[in-house]
């Protein structure tokens, strides 16, 4: 078994703190050395809070804008703890920030839980993963190559050993 021990390369990306961004909030940051995503914090007006009722959704501001290089995107993903404990997730997961977007990074949260959820200023509400983007040029074809799976779709590979 081989091990990858080299740290991934770091990419410098411009980050802008927008007017009204609380200077005491941390920038997006990795919680651990092996984390793929950087935590994003809620930047609520007047350091306040907002409540998401069950099945409600809202865009939560971060007070940040980014300048991603061409060929990269930023994906906004849920935080697993919020999803597990409260049913709060990113409604359009993953949300995408394109390299040509310069507006505020907003997080579209939805409360799928059965109780109201309070978002407080500074709460870690989502994570951002920067990833490469492949550009596609389609080639029309009358036939696609064969595979073992073929056209088997939803559920075609089963659940596991017991095939419930």
Automatic annotation (TrEMBL):
Highest rank taxon of the organism: Bacteria
Domain dUTPase-like: start-end pairs: 28-158
Q: Identify the pathway.
A: Pyrimidine metabolism; dUMP biosynthesis; dUMP from dCTP (dUTP route): step 2/2
Q: What class of enzyme is it?
A: hydrolase
For this protein, the record's Pfam families field holds: dUTPase
SUPFAM superfamilies the record matches? dUTPase-like
Q: Which reaction does it catalyse?
A: dUTP + H2O = dUMP + diphosphate + H(+)
Mind listing the GO molecular function terms for this protein?
dUTP diphosphatase activity; magnesium ion binding
Which cofactor is essential here? Mg(2+)
Enzyme Commission number(s) from the entry: 3.6.1.23
Q: Give the binding site residues for substrate.
A: 79-81, 92, 96-98
Keyword annotations for this protein?
Hydrolase, Magnesium, Metal-binding, Nucleotide metabolism
GO biological process terms, alphabetically, are: dUMP biosynthetic process; dUTP catabolic process
Main function: This enzyme is involved in nucleotide metabolism: it produces dUMP, the immediate precursor of thymidine nucleotides and it decreases the intracellular concentration of dUTP so that uracil cannot be incorporated into DNA.
Q: Spell out the family assignment given in the record's similarity comment.
A: Belongs to the dUTPase family.
Q: Which PANTHER family match?
A: DEOXYURIDINE 5'-TRIPHOSPHATE NUCLEOTIDOHYDROLASE
This protein's name: Deoxyuridine 5'-triphosphate nucleotidohydrolase
Protein source organism: Oceanicella actignis
Q: Which gene encodes it?
A: dut
